[in-house]
Each structure stands twice: as C-alpha cells, then as structure tokens.
Amino acid sequence: MKNTFKTLLILTGLLLLAQMSYAQTMLTMTTLSAAVSSSSTTTVSLTSATGVVAASTVIFVADGAGEAMFVNAVSGTTLSVTRGYQSLGKARTHPSGALVFIAPGNAINYINTVQPSGSCTRSNEQYLPVISLGIGGTAAVISDCVGGVWVNGSITTAKMNYQLQLPEIGNVAYTSAGTSTTKAANTMYCTEIDLPYNKYLTGLGMLNGASTGTDKWVLALYDSAGNKLANSATAGVTASGNSTFQKQAFTTPYYAVGPAQYYACAQGDSGTSATINLLVTGTADTYLTQKYGSQTFGTLSSITVPTSFNTATGGYWILY
Predict the structure, then answer these.
(1) Alpha helices for the chain (secondary structure H)
(2) Which domains does the chain have, with CATH numbers?
(3) Cα separation of 289 and 314, whole Å?
(4) What angle do CA 104, 109, 114 make, to 5 degrees?
(5) How far is Cα 84 from Cα 91, in angstroms, rounded to an integer?
(6) Is the per-residue pLDDT at 170 higher than 50?
C-alpha cells in the first residue's frame, strides 16, 4: 500500500511538472525554394527543412487557397510528399517563394477542418496558428489567439511581400508627420495597429525624428491584450536616419492574422539624444497610444494596453 501511494505521488508530481513546463510554440515557417509547377508532382523543395521529419510532418503551403501535404521522405531540403492532405485540401500549383508552415508530430493536430471560435488563452494552445483546410479545395483559413479571442483570417487576402504603413501619413513629408520629440530615458512608446488582413511579418520600422543621436531602440509587436508576439534583438539598434523609417528585423518572423488589433512599440535605452516622430492631437488622434516609463532596456514584458489617445506617446510604423 505504501509503495502504491508513493508511486501515485511520484506520478502526480511528474504530471504537475509536465503541466508547468507546457509552453505555446509557433509553427515553424519557411518558403518554397522552387515552384511547384504541377498538381501531380510528388516532390517539393524548401528553403529550409528544419523541423521536417519523414512520416510525421505535414507542410502547408499558404498561397492562393492553400494546400497541405504529408511528408513521406526527406533528402536535404527536398521532400517526397502526398498531395492534398486528408483529401480535404486540393493539389494545386505554387510559386517559388510561397510561404510554408511546418507541422511536425502532434502539431499536425493544428491542421484540420474546424475553424476555432470564441475566447481563448495563448498559453493553453500548444501550437499556433491553427490552419483550417477548405473542404473540396476551397480556401483555407489561418487562425490565431489574439487578445483573448480567436481571429480567423483568409489566406486569399494575405499580404506577404510589401510594406504596410500604419498609421498612414498620407501625401505629406515625413518631417511633417506628428511632432519630432526627444525620447525620454528608459521609456516605451506604443501605437495601436489595426491590421486589415493576414500578413507575414519579418519586422517593424519606426519613424525617427529630426535627429537620431546615439541612443538605441528595441521594437516589439503586442496583441490587443498586451501579450508580446515578436520583437527585434534585445541588445537594441542605434538610431540612424533622420526623419526616415528605420527597420529592425524580428528575431523570429511572425504570421499576423487579420483583421485584428495589435500594438507596435519602441523601447528606448537610457539616452536622451535621439528623437522620434509621435502622433499628436489634431493629426492622427484616432489611435490608442501610450508611453511606459521605468523600463529595463532589453526586457520586454507584457503591457497594459492603452484605452485612449494620449498625445505624443505613440509613433508611426511600417510593417514588413
């Protein structure tokens, strides 16, 4: 009896430990390194085959209406596949450079036919995003848990290879956008981003002010509940380029679904020599903005999202 009870305690402890170590993981993304020119070919080539395991991986090519393929064999970056996974997706042609999601092992369960809906918690999802195949080859939907609710975005409206400027500045010089403001030490500046459609994001660009000085910035993307989704290198990048959008790549690209609300944020170091162009009352005051002081540079925690427009607290952005 004692041994049985001891065994139960050990098993319970292991179960609790497993639950505590549970973490949400984003599906790995890559691209096709060559076009799939026929719906009957059973060989495809990827830019990277990291995470692809024969007989236990499904790849999803996210272009047009999309197509899932079961991986039968792997040779370098060349895969032998079964087209139209589960006979639900339809085999079709795909261009070189098309975005590919890799779903290994039990991540395959996140490629199915059911679109999620209602409330959600990101940390409760083992993998994201969820990909819902269209029955009979109709367009697939990519879903993510954004701000505590499921957002379902059609890949037929996804935009991948060009920049999106938000808030839009319009037909004026960058020097006339908002107001060039000297950055405060150890402060983060955040702006509401209303993404209108799905977009594969490799980074953010922030509009510098009239002078850049020698200060550093880290850029980050948050969802509408204040959860951090992606960020540039936490060592920061020195401001460069007066009155221009300075790009910083994410450490890991992020596939953002839309329409949905996000926040783009710039965290500055302890210096006060650089400037940033900020939204002000009377120009672009329909966006939610906020600045957060007493930041530890390079440490990106969740944020309490703004609930109103606050003049000269949020910048202008490009998403690319």
Answers:
(1) 2-20
(2) 23-157 (no CATH), 164-319 (2.60.120)
(3) 5
(4) 140
(5) 5
(6) yes
Task: Tell me what pLDDT residue 240 has.
Answer: 97
Provide CB contacts within 8 A for 174, sequence distance 6+: 207, 243, 244, 245, 277
**Which tens digits make up the pLDDT trace of 234-253?**
999 999 999 999 999 999 99
- pLDDT tens-digit profile of 10-60? 333 333 333 333 457 999 999 999 999 999 999 999 999 999 999 999 999
Select from 249, 258, 177 the least CA-distant residue to 219: 249
Q: How confident is the model at residue 90 (pLDDT cuts 50, 70, 90)?
A: confident
With b for 16 or more beta-carbon neighbours within 10 A and e for fewer, the 305-318 pattern comes to: bbeebbebbbbbbb
Please give the Cα distance from 273 to 295 (Å, whole number).
17
Q: With b meaning 16 or more CB within 10 Å and e meaning fewer, what string describes 176-189?
A: ebbbbbebeebbbb
What amino acid occupies position 307? T
Euclidean distance between CA atoms 223 and 54, whole angstroms: 35
Token pair for 155: 């890949």
